[in-house]
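Retry 2 of 3 after timeout on previous attempt. Resubmitting C-alpha cells to design endpoint.
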C-alpha cells in the first residue's frame, strides 16, 4: 500500500485528491469502540533498560566534601574540605571541558577566605573560572564532589 501511495504522490499535481481510509489505534478503547473498563492498556516496564540511581552518593546541600562555582563566579570549598581553617592559599586548575576542578594548596596561590554568615565554607571570586565554565556550556551553579589526591597533594572535584 505504501508503494502505491508513494507512486501516486510522485505523479500527483496540486489538483489531485487522494482518498485514504486510516484506522487510528486508541489504547483506551476496545475493538468494539467502547472505553475499556480496566482503563488504558499499560506496557510492562523492564527495569534492566533503566539506570539505577539509588546506589549513587546522595548530594545534600550542606554536607560532604564538595566545591561549587556559582553564577557570580564565587568558588566555594565545603567546610569538610577545609577542616576549620579560616584561610587557605591554593592554586585553581580546571580541565578543558570544565568537568574537573583541582584545588592545590600552595603558598603562591590565591587566598580563600571564610564566607560571611553561618557557613564555614571558604570562598574566593574567580571570574575567569566562571567564564571558562560558561564557554563550555556548564550550567551554573556547578557542584563537584571532591576527594583528596595524595599524588597531586590536592583536592580534585569531579562533576
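Retry 2 succeeded. Sequence:
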Amino acid at each position: 500500500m505504501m508503494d502505491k501511495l508513494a507512486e501516486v504522490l510522485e505523479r500527483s499535481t496540486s489538483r489531485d485528491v487522494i482518498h485514504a481510509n486510516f484506522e487510528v489505534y486508541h489504547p483506551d478503547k476496545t475493538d468494539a469502540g467502547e472505553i475499556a473498563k480496566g482503563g488504558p492498556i499499560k506496557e510492562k516496564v523492564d527495569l534492566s533498560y533503566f539506570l539505577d540511581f539509588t546506589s549513587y552518593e546522595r548530594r545534600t546541600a550542606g554536607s560532604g566534601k564538595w566545591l561549587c562555582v556559582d553564577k557570580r563566579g564565587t568558588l566555594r570549598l565545603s567546610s569538610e574540605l577545609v577542616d576549620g581553617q579560616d584561610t587557605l592559599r591554593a592554586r585553581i586548575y580546571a580541565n578543558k571541558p570544565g568537568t574537573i576542578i583541582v584545588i592545590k594548596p600552595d603558598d603562591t596561590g590565591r587566598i580563600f577566605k571564610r564566607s560571611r554568615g553561618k557557613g564555614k565554607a571558604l570562598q574566593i571570586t574567580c571570574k575567569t573560572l566562571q567564564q571558562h565554565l560558561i564557554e563550555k556550556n556548564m550550567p551554573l551553579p556547578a557542584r563537584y564532589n571532591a576527594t583528596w589526591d595524595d599524588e597531586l597533594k590536592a583536592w580534585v572535584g569531579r562533576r
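Attempt log closed. The chain has a mean pLDDT of 79.
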